[in-house]
Amino acid sequence: LANRIFGAQGTSIFESMSRLARETGSLNLGQGFPEGLEPAELIEAAVKALRDGPHQYPPMFGLPELRRAVAENSRRFQGIELDWEREVLVTSGATEALADTFLALLNDGDEVILFEPAYDAYATLIRRAGAIPVPVRLSPPDWALPREALERAITPRTRLIVVNNPMNPIGKVFDEAERAILAELAERHDLVIVADEVYEHLVFDDRAFVSLLAIPELRDRVVRIGSAGKTFSVTGWKVGYVSASPELLAPISRAHQYVTFTTPPALQAAVAAGLNLPDSYFEDLRRGLAARRDALFGGLLSAGFDVADAPATYFAIADISAFDPVGDDLSFCRRLTVEAKVTPVPVSAFYAERDVTSHVRFCFAKSFETLGEAVHRLARWR
Ligand code: PMP
Ligand code: GLN
Questions:
Q1: What class does CATH assign to 4-31+280-381?
Q2: Cα(316)–Cα(299) distance, integer angstroms
Q3: I need a labelling partner for 56 at 20 to 30 A (CA). Which of 8, 23, 247, 381 fits?
Q4: Whose CA is nearest to atom 4 of ligand 2?
Q5: Residue 326 alpha carbon to ligand 1 centre in Å
Q6: How many CA atoms lie within 13 A of 367 on its CB side?
């Protein structure tokens, strides 16, 4: 029997646009995955670990070397002090971390606030955990946190706020004033913040990124989620990690033990090596992605796209309102795929109501060759 909750979502937009891109020979700038950016040290560490083993179930919390590396990386970049034995859990991707967190912390009828445009997994997993997603919308052009709307959305049933920071698909980084609002409201209403920080290392132009877990008043209220897929450009590996106080992490680990129990040990060992790479790796990643962003931006602008600045993540969104005939964003993505052979994804997929149809999202974590070809095709199409 098809499940009401998952069935209602249909196939994820990333999967369906990737399939259309394959079928039409289009350049896929839709689904977020990098091209050719994975560090050689990480791959070598994985090869070595696969050759040498071990190959059996690692500890349920994750390999100690990876949990230490997660704690050490958080200390180095965010000044967060973590007890790696009680405050770090390894999961099979950030997606599993999200699922474990919702399964562990939510009861039937609880409410969870999320900010739209929101990554598509949140609402579906929240509903499947028996709870109710309550969207609060951010609006262009500045996508600021709307304090009043957020306060209005909080009820006695509110349990969690999901904050994706930096934020997919709009590339937003929450600023100091916004972080203060989140901290104030979480404390006042006794809420837990699920901080999906998978893009923590993809922040450009010397902009500051501060983890919500680094805010002293939030130290025991934040579940911080990271992903090796994003930090090391290996989205297929599905290695994630959760950091939280022992009181929050213990129930999450109990969910994890019945969802996947563990994650391939060779990949865990390699990700540990990756997290321990020197600062230069993380700086080069940021600089390399910023250069790719600029390459795609220049091309999109000269092809007539109205693109907004992207301070973080590997996504750029473009307002398509000026195109004639424009149709909705999904039909625009299909048309661009067929006519220009370049594929973005529609931003309406990040709204529960699918009613905001003015923007499409391009992924710029690609080779300069791919980006140059995309720009060439878009210019010819216009
Ligand atoms: N959260 C956000 C905001 C994402 O963009 C992604 C990646 N698509 C994930 C979570 C999932 O990460 P993972 O592949 O590690 O499950
Ligand atoms: N997070 C990726 C994106 O936003 C997609 C992940 C997926 O395909 N489910 O593009």
A1: alpha beta
A2: 12
A3: 247
A4: 32
A5: 30
A6: 6
